[in-house]
Amino acid sequence: MSHLIVHGGTPLSGRIIPSANKNAVLPILCATLLTKQPVRLRGVPEITDVKKIVEVFRKLGSKVELDFKTGILDVHHADTHFDPNVDRLPEEMRSSIMLVPGLMARFGAARIEDDVKGCTLGAREIDPHVEVFERFGAQVERLPDGLILRVHRPLTANAHWTDYASVTTTENFVLCAALADGVSTLTNAASEPHVQEFCNFMSLLGAKIEGHGTSKLKITGVQDLGGADYTFTEDFHEIVTFLALGAITGGNVQVKNGAPEMFPLLDRTFAKFGVQIVHEDGWSRCVVDGPLKVKEPFTRNILQKVEAAPWPYVPVDLLPIFVALGVKAEGSVMFWNKVYDGAMGWTSELAKFGAHAFLSDPHRMITFGGKPLSPAEVESPYIIRVAIALLMVAASIPGKSVIKNATPIRRAHPNFVEHIGELGARMEWVEGD
Ligand SMILES: CC(=O)N[C@H]1[C@@H](OP(=O)(O)OP(=O)(O)OC[C@H]2O[C@@H](n3ccc(=O)[nH]c3=O)[C@H](O)[C@@H]2O)O[C@H](CO)[C@@H](O)[C@@H]1O
Ligand SMILES: C=C(OP(=O)(O)O)C(=O)O
Question: Which reaction does it catalyse (predicted)?
Answer without folding.
Answer: phosphoenolpyruvate + UDP-N-acetyl-alpha-D-glucosamine = UDP-N-acetyl-3-O-(1-carboxyvinyl)-alpha-D-glucosamine + phosphate
